[in-house]
Amino acid sequence: MTTDVKPPGAFRGIPGSTRRALSAPQTTPPWHRRRRFALTGACMAGLFLGFLVYLRLLGKIDTFLWPFWNSKSNNHIINADGPIEPPTFNWIDITPSRTLVWHPCYSSDHDCARLDVPMDWQSPSDSSRVVLAIIRLRASTTAAANKTAYRGPVFFNPGGPGGSGIWSLLDHGKELQVILGKEHYDLVSFDPRGIGNSVPRIECWSQQQDRGVWDLQDSVLGTVDAHPGVVYDSYARAYAFSQVCETNPDLAGADGILRHSSTAYHARDMLEIIEQMGEEKLKYWGFSYGTVLGGTFAALWPNRVERMVNDGNVDYVEWYQGGYVNFLHDTDVVMEAFFTHCHRVGPLLCAFYSPTPSQIKFRLFSLLDSIRQSPILVIQPTNLTTSGGTTPPPEIITYSKLRKMLSTALYQPSLRFPRIATVLSALESRNGIPYISYTNSDSTLPSLCLAESIPPSTPLSQPQEGTPDAFPAVLCSDASYHPLTPSQFAEYAALLQNISYAAGAVQAEFRLSCIGRTIRPKWELSPEWSGIKTAFPILFVNNHADNVTPLVSARNNSRAFPGSAVLVQEGYGHTTLAAPSRCTAEKIRGYFQRGELPPGEGVGCKSDRLPFDDDFGGQTQEEDELTVAVRKLARKVRIKPFYRGV
User: What one-character-per-residue DSSP string does 41-91 give?
Assistant: First the structure.
């Protein structure tokens, strides 16, 4: 069956090649039937048993038998010690295929696949291809026993752009699946093209050591408000990095990944996976940039949406026009919550407490001014060692470092505010050890000398949280082309600082990503975000105070899709994952399972915990599985600005 869907009014002037890319031929997925070996006689039986003995002696019998032990259904194989785990998994061991073939990976609950798709969906060829890494967390065994309970796959994207769906599903997929209903749904994610284990990967540097040296210079440069003239230095640095990327022969060129990495390609890749799985429509849960991917898919193929939750909403119009101003609408509301709730809980729970919120705010600004003029030198204890086994060098805590720490804390106030209060209190007495401890615990960067360089055409040896160089590649491909001069960027940076005193200077880096970018995507969309009627209404979910995706963005996006609904959670931080709420989890579950939409646009839920409240992540015996999953998500997920790669 061939489906040729031309969404009414979603995009202007769709050329014939784009219509072909929008059209997804339905192919019947192959049936993976297990071969059954019939023993035709005692001789054959003897040969087979002898072969098994030989494998046993080599220590490879588990690897040989695992595909037969692991059923293609949702059944688990249980022994006395619990589920049987698969052998050590490596993505390179899977041979890419143009049809979706699942392989056991990571645990007895997971399957993985490498799907070979065209680099250019508008003009497919056999010579220019992309291989997508896909992972599935299967529904529980209950679904296999009760076929009426199983409702198919739900796709999810963790955000970015550049975030790894593989890493995120392995990290917190089980908790997300509990919210959906683990007996009902498989949870499926993938590394979008150019990211993680999907190849070719978008990596501008040929060696990781080169990247490390480049990133180290960033801390010296500082934020755009650190000192006079830094804004122009930042512009020049951004331009230089863009040239590194656009002159890389592995990325540029007519058939290069940079010309084929816009969100339209990610959405078309996702459609291909859906159809390869034998599904007619999409069930989807996207966070942050994942809301752009979801919204783009819905605009291109509105009749293919069965369920869609977009959480922490990027403004679609602003994203595609490239303005990037509205995203700081509520940033200072989140920062003010630090002062208000630190005062509310008192000195026992907030180390930066003062008698009034305004006094706490004054202390913070005084500390920033002090460190701007006199950075803090930290001689680290000799009992500490780096990942390379050496004694860490002295560290200088600068105004810019403190600014970036505060900006990152706004993404996840419930988790981070108590810790940064301790850091700030120590910095007032020029004690930088708590700062070192806090920033080191949040870093996932490897030692510079130990960093592993893997060719971009080869899957990673271990899943990574994301691919930072993919962020500007996707962002700048989607946005209308608006080159800025140095003086224009300086005006933009000043505008952001006027909008947000808390993070404007840091978030100016967002638009720096596109300075010097000239390569345009072959598949370039001109969205008209209005009157898009999906097969089932979309549910937009947002905190009332989100530091980078404000509530107004969710409402703007909802107006583009008649019949959609907005669920407002009274909470602080980026996406509802930053502010755990059983109420929100129940409503998301009700939407997926029963199609329930919240009435009106008022506050639909409250977070279970305010910033600085005690016993964060605690658990009692009376808590059910859903509440435990919500609390685990709040503890496990680390939400931070991905475009800086930190």
Answer: SHHHHHHHHHHHHHHHHHT-HHHHHHHHHS-SSS---EETTEEPPPPP--G
| Cα–Cα distance for residue pair 486/515, rounded to 1 Å | 9
- Cβ–Cβ < 8 Å for 183, 140: yes
C-alpha span between 73 and 147 (Å, rounded): 11
Q: How many residues does the chain have?
A: 646
Please name the amino acid found at residue 142: T
Reduce the DSSP state of residue 97 to 3 states and report it: strand
Average confidence (pLDDT) per 10 residues, the chain, 646 residues: 40 47 50 38 45 40 36 32 59 97 96 98 96 97 68 97 97 98 97 98 90 81 93 96 95 95 98 98 98 98 98 97 94 98 98 98 98 94 60 89 96 96 98 93 59 86 93 95 92 97 94 94 90 98 98 97 97 96 97 93 88 69 84 88 49
CA nearest neighbour of 284 among 261, 301, 259, 265: 301
For strand 24-25 and strand 78-79, is the pairing parallel, antiparallel, or unpaired? unpaired
The model's pLDDT over 53-65, given as tens digits with 9 standing for 90+, comes to: 344 433 333 333 3
Q: What does the alpha-carbon distance between residue 109 and residue 74 come to, in Å, rounded to a whole number?
A: 8
Place of tokens 């931080």: 573
Buried b (16+ CB within 10 A) or exposed e, 226-241: beeebbebbbebbeeb
Q: Tokens at residue 283, please?
A: 């069930």
CA dist 471 and 284 (Å) reads 21
Of 372, 109, 384, nearest in space to 222 by CA: 372
In angstroms, rounded to a whole number, what is the distance separating the alpha carbons of residues 604 and 598?
Answer: 7
Angstrom distances, CA of residue 57 to CA of 45, 52, 62: 19, 9, 11
Residues 6+ apart with CB under 8 A from 165: 135, 156, 157, 158, 189, 190, 191, 192, 196
Rg (CA), the chain: 25
Residues 297/267, Cβ–Cβ less than 8 Å: yes
Query: Which residue(s) pair with 104 in the sheet?
Result: 111
**How far is Cα 208 from Cα 446, in angstroms, rounded to an integer?**
10
Indicate whether this model's pTM tops 0.70: yes
* pLDDT value, residue 617: 46
